[in-house]
């Protein structure tokens, strides 16, 4: 899976600024480090993570005495990839396997959360396609019942991918939709059930209550469901995505992240910041509107495509 196209804007911006930071310089000195700091902040890596990266490079420069600017790319890549290692749960993570064996012979249930407009429905469609193409039986549950568009769009995605969508229409009880979707998944011996939910972050208590009610109700069918809670974030909003992630992880237990819309933004560095700051692995990144524009996040591939 090549990321070069999906990350083009971030990459070009990174590359241009990095080139400016080192122009006419042969060694990595204070000034280069200062410039590098603003390059990282500008790419929405976030201040805390930027400081960590700069610290690491500073130490390295102090240790190695002479570090040429031609090596900066490589060093930056190594240090960032290394920094991201702690949240990298590898390619065999349960969410990617979505295996009945991981869920006691029952469907693997994924609850998808995130605020409106971040690309939640699209990501569910892409995930459905991903699992369906891998030969898995998928059921979708349209439990974002606050917006007619969300229900309709999920139904369209279901048709497009060729998987059933359980829906009771708009303004119905989201928990009841989730219950029926999980029940349908059991009856069909599905491998994966993906539940869309409404994400009204402005009312945190409501959000928490609603998400826990959805969980409680689906647990009447499968006691340890959901097996994953996937939070979808819009990467093109940069630091805003980061703030949302913080809020959501307070409202419910999030087990993995999907960061969308990285194709249209130069703020792709936010993935690095989020991945470093939150104790939740980034599992997928969205790099376009098509069914196939969802990639498994791999820190090395990601960092390599930003700096090469
Ligand atoms: P929701 O309200 O969170 O369910 O958001 P939608 O799934 O309806 O997506 C909102 C808009 O973002 C739609 O126009 C999608 O096509 C678009 N979108 C979603 N993911 C991506 C992505 O990875 N890249 C791009 N360019 N657009 C995306």
Automatic annotation (TrEMBL):
Residues 281-294 form the SRP54-type proteins GTP-binding domain. SUPFAM superfamilies: Domain of the SRP/SRP receptor G-proteins, P-loop containing nucleoside triphosphate hydrolases. It is a peripheral membrane protein. GO terms for biological process: SRP-dependent cotranslational protein targeting to membrane. PROSITE patterns: SRP54. It holds the Pfam family SRP54. GO terms for molecular function: GTP binding; GTPase activity; signal recognition particle binding. It catalyses: GTP + H2O = GDP + phosphate + H(+). Its EC number is 3.6.5.4. GTP binds at residues 114-121, 196-200, 260-263. The keyword Cell membrane applies. Keywords: Cell membrane, Cytoplasm, GTP-binding, Hydrolase, Membrane, Nucleotide-binding, Receptor. It is found in: Cell membrane; Cytoplasm. The keyword Nucleotide-binding applies. GO terms for cellular component: cytoplasm; plasma membrane. Part of the signal recognition particle protein translocation system, which is composed of SRP and FtsY. Belongs to the GTP-binding SRP family. FtsY subfamily. NCBIfam families: ftsY. Involved in targeting and insertion of nascent membrane proteins into the cytoplasmic membrane. Acts as a receptor for the complex formed by the signal recognition particle (SRP) and the ribosome-nascent chain (RNC). This is Signal recognition particle receptor FtsY. The gene is ftsY.
């Amino acid at each position: 899976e090549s990321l070069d196209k999906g990350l083009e804007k971030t990459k070009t911006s990174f590359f241009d600024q990095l080139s400016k930071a080192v122009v006419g310089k042969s060694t990595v000195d204070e000034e280069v480090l200062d410039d590098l700091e603003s390059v990282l902040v500008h790419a929405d890596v976030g201040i805390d993570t930027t400081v960590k990266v700069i610290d690491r490079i500073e130490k390295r420069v102090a240790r190695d005495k002479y570090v040429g600017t031609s090596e900066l790319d490589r060093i930056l890549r190594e240090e960032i990839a290394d920094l991201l290692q702690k949240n990298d749960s590898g390619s065999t993570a349960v969410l990617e396997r979505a295996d009945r064996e991981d869920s006691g012979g029952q469907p693997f249930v994924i609850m998808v959360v995130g605020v409106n407009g971040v690309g939640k429905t699209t990501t569910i469609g892409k995930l459905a396609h991903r699992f369906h193409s891998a030969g898995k039986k998928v059921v979708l549950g349209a439990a974002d019942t606050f917006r007619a568009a969300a229900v309709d769009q999920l139904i369209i995605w279901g048709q497009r991918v060729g998987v059933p969508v359980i829906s009771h229409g708009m303004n119905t009880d989201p928990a009841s939709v989730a219950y029926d979707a999980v029940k349908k998944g059991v009856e069909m011996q599905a491998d994966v059930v993906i539940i869309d939910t409404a994400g009204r972050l402005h009312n945190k208590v409501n959000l928490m209550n609603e998400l826990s009610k959805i969980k409680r109700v689906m647990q009447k069918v499968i006691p340890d469901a959901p097996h994953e809670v996937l939070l979808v974030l819009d990467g093109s909003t940069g630091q805003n995505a980061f703030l949302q992630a913080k809020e959501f992880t307070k409202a419910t237990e999030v087990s993995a992240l999907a960061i969308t819309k990285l194709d249209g933004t130069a703020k792709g560095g936010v993935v690095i910041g989020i991945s470093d700051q939150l104790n939740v692995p980034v599992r997928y990144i969205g790099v376009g509107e098509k069914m196939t524009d969802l990639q498994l996040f791999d820190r090395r591939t990601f960092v390599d495509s930003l700096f090469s």
